[in-house]
Specification:
homodimer, alpha/beta, 5 strands
Chain lengths: ~210, ~210
Amino acid sequence: MSIRIITISREFGSGGRSIAELVAKELGFAFYDKALIAKAAERTGFAESFIKEHGEQRGPNNLFSLPFASSTYNGMSTEDYLWSMQRSIILELADKAPCVIVGRCSDYILRNRKDAFHVFIHANHEDRAERVVNQYGVQTNNPLKTINEEDKKRRKNYRYYTDREWGAADNYNVSLDSSLFGIEGTADLIIQMARDLGVAEGEGPAADPEE
Amino acid sequence: MSIRIITISREFGSGGRSIAELVAKELGFAFYDKALIAKAAERTGFAESFIKEHGEQRGPNNLFSLPFASSTYNGMSTEDYLWSMQRSIILELADKAPCVIVGRCSDYILRNRKDAFHVFIHANHEDRAERVVNQYGVQTNNPLKTINEEDKKRRKNYRYYTDREWGAADNYNVSLDSSLFGIEGTADLIIQMARDLGVAEGEGPAADPEE
């Protein structure tokens, strides 16, 4: 079996997106994070900023999930509609060319594909707080609280759509602590594992110039 | 920092114990699984079979946790007593020499040691069922049920003593799917990661001849 798809799920502030980008670049895989958002925006008509905010969040605390906000899509809530659209896009992209896909329950959506390798990236709270403030530029007086809230949202969203626990080791082929291995070190481990398993290298397009 | 301790937590039937043994042998680390049970037996006076059965299980469904069974140890239940003894033994062993420790919440007990590397091994249900029957020789008509029950017990025990979720990727530095990487492949990955991080190799005694 040759790995054609790598899904990278990640804790907020773990550096998972940067790691995913390094992996895609090195393997010559397409890189889908913002590109996926853009595609969803195009297909749904929502703004990219709206999709970025709501594409991985779902739960009773969220106004958009309430029925009164949902009548336009055959009784579907906005997020359920977004989930459904993102799911189709992920399935389509996975069929197209070797790629790295960040988040959006892609590990679950592609769980039955034999050519997919599923990765989870986590880090300690201190490193995540530091990264969120200094690298992502998030404005917050309490970064640890911000992180915990984001974890909670992702967990809720994941449980709602997959009936599985977000961040449970069992969902992924490998879970890595980027605090211990570093951003480049973690990317190197994933690249090496994929190569050892056999990767459809070079078949894909160059990584999207997303930054 | 040099890795002196590797804790290997594992799903029942994932081959985690065999993997741990390979890692210990290759790195020249002491291997503590049965040796730990023997030590706990010596110190508590319980039979090894009793410790094997109860040393990783605790929960409301377990008779031994009921107060009426616990009066002999200052009001402590048998399992709480066993937990406490196993905890001291793990802390002592970790101080002594480079070692690989299997299960028994050792990841939690040694969570603050900078020289510890924490690993979780999981596998898919089919492979675990096959291993439990054909390699561990467990007598069962329904191996999938046996596995789920064992998972449930470990989860309950872990949550009770650590207030954390068993098998959550966050608890470990790396979690690996032995179904994908194979037993030797998984061991090789752990050995290589430890060496990359810097390992106190060769300092330890030869692995205990536990088999």
